[in-house]
């Protein structure tokens, strides 16, 4: 049995990713066991509401529900973050959608949830993939607190949306948002995660936009038969549109990082090209804080450190686009 766990700071591209995680369960043959939330694109409080909104729309389309675990309200050193300039004041494109208050959060928090699902997967022999699409705070905390870290042995693969391999950052000149939001947490994960780890980086996502035509056919078209289609169209309206082209980095299409990471987590075939590398996170306070320093040196790498990270170099975008289509299809 295949299980998925998503840690998110929803976020518009997170919402697309979460819809995929919930909607594709039957067709792709896995179970979404839980979603944990964190601060990031907007406040933790907004994120909890946003994930509820996502869940409600997916359930209306017939998707199986999963528990939502509230997590970090700030970084390990009390950092805060904000990306309302992109994701809107509410973090979900300010689309004014109703909060389904009846959808309660799980009584266990994110850290407890993560540790619990790792242990359960180990017991049950399930193939669990954990994918993080926000700051790495919850994961790092679970790694630090989880009774010797045995729970990590239950995780078949960790997929991280974060970092950049070419020093073209989005949070700073050289740092990517999810890493920069909590550099201590990110450094801990890159240094201490001992299982399989796949990175879907900012530069990879910028190089793989969903072409506007495909995006329109899936998300921004006039009529949707399903609730998720209508939901995504509403939240994406002001952010991903060929006319407004809010993401000036790519005129060719919509850069939806978190969706691509979740697509890789659900279906390994989306990862078409990869390179094993060593990655360290700069935690110093200078202008390079939050930089993911990748050792691209050939053979053993420049520093000869362990190449423990699978850095994704190429995606099967046809497959990813097919998954986006299946996500919005009516239930
Ligand atoms: C990442 O930062 C956030 O703005 C997105 O949701 C994505 O997770 C991209 O750098
Ligand atoms: Ca995110």
Automatic annotation (TrEMBL):
Protein's organism? Triparma retinervis
Matches recorded under InterPro entries: Inosine/uridine_hydrolase_dom, IUN_hydrolase, Ribo_hydro-like
> Which domain of life does the protein's organism represent?
Eukaryota
* Gene3D superfamilies, sorted: Ribonucleoside hydrolase-like
A Pfam match is IU_nuc_hydro
Q: Which GO terms describe its molecular function?
A: hydrolase activity, hydrolyzing N-glycosyl compounds
Which protein are we looking at?
Answer: Inosine/uridine-preferring nucleoside hydrolase domain-containing protein
All copies of the Inosine/uridine-preferring nucleoside hydrolase domain together span 4-320
State the family it belongs to.
Belongs to the IUNH family.
């Amino acid at each position: 049995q295949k299980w998925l766990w998503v840690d998110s700071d929803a976020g518009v591209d997170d919402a697309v990713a979460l819809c995929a995680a919930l909607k594709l369960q039957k067709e792709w043959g896995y179970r979404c066991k839980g979603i944990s939330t964190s601060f990031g694109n907007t406040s933790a409080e907004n994120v909890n509401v946003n994930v509820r909104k996502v869940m409600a729309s997916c359930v209306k389309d017939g998707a199986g529900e999963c528990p939502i675990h509230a997590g970090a309200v700030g970084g390990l050193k009390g950092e805060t973050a904000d990306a309302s300039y992109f994701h809107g004041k509410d973090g979900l494109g300010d689309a004014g959608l109703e909060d389904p208050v009846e959808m309660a959060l799980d009584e266990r928090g994110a850290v407890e949830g993560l540790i619990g699902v790792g242990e359960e997967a180990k017991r049950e022999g399930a193939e669990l993939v954990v994918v993080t699409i926000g700051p790495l705070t919850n994961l790092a905390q679970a790694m630090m607190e989880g009774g010797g870290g045995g729970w990590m042995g239950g995780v078949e693969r960790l997929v991280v949306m974060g970092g950049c391999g070419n020093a073209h950052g989005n949070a700073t000149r050289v740092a990517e948002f999810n890493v920069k939001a909590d550099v201590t947490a990110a450094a801990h994960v890159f240094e201490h995660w001992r299982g399989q780890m796949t990175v879907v980086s900012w530069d990879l996502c910028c190089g793989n936009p969903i072409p506007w035509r495909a995006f329109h056919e899936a998300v921004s078209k006039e009529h949707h038969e399903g609730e998720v289609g209508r939901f995504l169209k509403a939240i994406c309206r002001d952010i991903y549109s060929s006319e407004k082209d809010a993401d000036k980095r790519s005129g060719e299409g919509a850069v939806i990082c978190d969706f691509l990471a979740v697509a890789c987590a659900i279906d390994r075939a989306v990862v078409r090209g990869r390179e094993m590398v060593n990655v360290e996170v700069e935690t110093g306070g200078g202008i390079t804080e939050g930089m993911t320093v990748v050792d691209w040196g050939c053979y053993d790498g420049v520093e000869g450190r362990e190449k423990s990270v699978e850095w994704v170099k190429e995606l099967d975008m046809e497959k990813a686009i097919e998954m986006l289509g299946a996500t919005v299809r009516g239930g």
